[in-house]
Predict the structure.
Amino acid sequence: MEKSVKMVFFFVYIFVGLYLLNSALNFMKTPDFFGQIDKWIFLIGGFLLIIGGFSFLKASKKRKE
């Protein structure tokens, strides 16, 4: 994968992770717009967690070999 694509995925992971932390702990008030798309953000967060889990399994298999 290209470096630019990896950076985009990195920022998406960071953004969604910070949003999920903020929704649970309420560090700062988010605009009402985010409340309207809240379900979509949780959907994207779920997919990112699944992709991250598969990446973790794939990386741990490479280290053992």
Remarks:
- Helices lie at 3-25, 32-36, 38-64.
- The mean pLDDT is 85.
